[in-house]
Amino acid sequence: MTLPAASTLHTGYFTEGLAADPELAAAITGELARQRDGIELIASENIVSRLVLEAQGSVLTNKTVEGLPYARYYGGAAFADVIEALAVERATRLFGCRFANVQPHSGSNANAGVFLGLLGLGDTILSMDTAAGGHISHGHPATLTGRDYHIVRYGVNRTSERIEIADVRALAHTHRPRLIVAGGSAYPPALDFAGLRAVADEVGALFMVDMAHFAGLVATGLYPHPFPHAHVVTTTTYKSLRGARGGLVLWNDEALSDRINYGIFPGVQGSVMMHAVAGKAACLGEALKPEFRAYNEAVLANAQALARTLKAAGVRLVSGGTDCGLMLADLTSLGITGDIAAKALEKAGLAVNKNLIPFDPRPPEAPSGLRLSSNAGTARGFGAAEFEAIGRWIVEVLKAPDDAGLLARVHDEVRALCRRFPIY
Predict the structure, then answer these.
(1) Average pLDDT per run of 10 along the chain, which is 424 residues long?
(2) CA-CA distance, 276 to 271, in Å (whole number)?
(3) Domain range for 368
(4) Do 195 and 281 share a structural domain?
(5) Structural domain includes residue 1
(6) 294 and 210 together in one domain
(7) How many domains does the chain divide into?
(8) Contacting residues for 54 by C-beta, under 8 A, at least 6 apart
(9) Is 180 exposed, middle or buried (0-12, 13-18, 19+ CB in 10 A)?
(10) The pTM is what?
């Protein structure tokens, strides 16, 4: 039998890279240059290792699977099963729990899957108000969660800007939630998991912790651990875990397993993104190494250095400081809003995000605060001295956001610092 001649329809399909798409290549090259020559201070971002980049950019992009490892709906899953099982084992070992689902495409999907699996439509959820630092996926009116469940919101004390367990207890006894959620996107103090679980037990509620912004610190014993207090824990795998973009769900009670797993698939998402799961396996493996604790120790030390520098210059920090890698700066006394400040800082090579502060009189589009983080800079290798310099640059820019010469000079200094700590 004569085999047909090789087709010419796919000439270059398996050999040409980004050079075949100059417009896309230029944008990606530009993003690499931005990351190399700028300082990332956004709390939702970090810098992954070459290992994670290679795992995510692997041939696993081609593989579609549905279901759990070794119980797939599709064939050809032998290696996909090994990779996902490895990610599950590493997640449970890292966080000291019995079960993990590593499939969520994001932290919001992880949360939505838990809600769908454990709750009924219209059930009451008691979660932190976004205006006080909570996350939108916990019940913001613009989300499916906010539409499909009855959301009751707790906030912070006006004076301390911290959660008061007594206030949460009062709301819980009044509204009898089915689920109480702890964790947020802009809450710097450590959370009282034992106190919140006690409230949940008083009203017969489940207790969930979203630890996306401090998971790395939890994994290394540098932040209170949500287990054994939480019934279920969710997190992203980037941010403080310094890894692939995506989410995890963790729990200990086997009776919850089917409900959580079905909540993720087919509940809120379809087939597994195996290239992302490979990236998660890679970063979880890195997090099990001793170097990861040293990284997180530096995250805390650097956050304190940045906080000290800002406070010494008269910038007020919400709740007085931070117990993790992120902090929230109140710009009110400087006469500048967060949107203007963020744009000026970006021109100076410093990427931050505007943010509401508790009891903010201003709208989300032009809030009174900035959210800052030491995670990415620490991943790059910065120490306390570098974060003190970053703090001084931030203050300079905040005091003269329209001074083009100042912004250019700071950007030059930022670029010089970054080139001492190269990435990729």
Answers:
(1) 66 90 97 97 97 97 96 94 98 98 97 98 97 95 95 98 98 98 97 98 98 98 98 97 96 98 97 97 98 98 98 97 97 97 98 97 97 98 98 98 98 98 96
(2) 12
(3) 290-420
(4) yes
(5) no
(6) no
(7) 2
(8) none
(9) buried
(10) 0.95
